[in-house]
Amino acid sequence: MAADGEQRPPAGERGLAVAEARPKLKKPPLFRVILLNDDYTPMDFVVEVLERVFGMDRTRATRIMLEVHTQGKGVCGVYTYEIAETKVAQVSAYAEQHQHPLLCTMEEV
Ligand code: TYC
């Protein structure tokens, strides 16, 4: 053992390879919340859901609703897993309460 006050030179000066410690912070995976078209859910109801659950204004909600209506599906927003899961659950519960077959799902970005 080295005596008190006697320290070994740092690794980089002893011919050892040194690398900066890299903080291992990974970005969380993100998920798109997707709304699916159907033939029965009223357009007004879909617009209301987009306003309530996704905080959209009437103009944006109407645009997304029409995109879903014409394209078959549309993206309501992109969130981390738990937020996306909660939005899907809120849409599904609200649609069920009102007995509409509206479907909402999520997919990793
Ligand atoms: N296609 C429905 C209708 O004609 C409207 C609708 C839009 C339903 C979007 C679901 O996610 C949806 N009444």
Helix and strand topology:
Blueprint: E1 30-36, H1 43-54, H2 58-71, E2 73-80, H3 81-97, E3 103-108
Helix pairs in contact: 1-2
The structure holds L-tyrosinamide (TYC).
L-tyrosinamide binds next to strand 1, helix 1 and helix 2.
Write structural notes for this entry.
The protein is an alpha+beta fold and 109 residues long. The chain has helices at residues 43-54, 58-71, 81-97; strands spanning 30-36, 73-80, 103-108. The radius of gyration is 26 Å and the shape is elongated. The protein binds L-tyrosinamide (TYC).
Described by strand count, sense and barrel closure, the largest sheet is: 3 strands, antiparallel
Contiguous low-pLDDT stretches (5 residues minimum) are 1-6
Continuous helix count? 3
Order of helices and strands: EHHEHE
Please state the overall shape, judged from the principal axes of the Cα atoms: elongated
Compute the CA-based radius of gyration. Answer: 26 Å
Ligand types: L-tyrosinamide
Which strand-content bin applies to the residues? 15-25%
Given helix and strand content, the structural type is alpha+beta
Share in helix:
25-40%
Briefly say what this structure is.
With 109 residues, the chain is α+β, with helices and mostly antiparallel strands. 39% of the residues lie in helices and 19% in strands.
Summary tags:
109 residues; alpha+beta; 3-stranded antiparallel sheet; 3 helices; binds L-tyrosinamide
